[in-house]
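Sequence in, structure out. Go.
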Amino acid sequence: MNISEEDEEKIRQITLERARARQIRKEQETKVSGNLYFDSQAQELSGTGLNYKVIGGDVELEWGTKSEKDCAGFIVKRRPAKTEVFDVIESYVNFAPLASKGPDGGVYRYLDTSVSPGGWVYRVSEATTTGEESDLCQCLVEVQTEDEQKAAIIAAAGIAVFAVLAVVAGITLDPLQ
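Output:
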């Protein structure tokens, strides 16, 4: 089988890119613990386990647990998208609703009113009664500016008007009627 030098060089480039990507993933794995370490979907920011709503510029987070053995409570962290360092924005120590609901678990909610427009990664970590932290879930949230929200509404309205006009035109121009 003859492979041209050009194709051989492309194969080398692809192999190098894949090796770099694997190395980056390994480095990222060292920065996570707990369920996020074992759940690749959560690690990829799929939002598995952590749901959110953007309400008038604030972000409401919701997650649930089925059991909480030796759990003291939860810590909510946030970082700008495309950065590495998380900041703790709230903890069970200062905010009672984040304290453990007991061994049977429960549903938890947190409203972040200090967020600004942009992309944010939220992470929830579980703190044990012995002081250990374990990352539980995370998700990526895009908070839009007021202008972006208005533009999205205008675009949606324009698409809806176009769809209605297309249906009306299709009905009136139907040759079978």
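Check: The two ends are 63 Å apart (CA to CA). Residues 50 and 63 are 5 Å apart (CA to CA).
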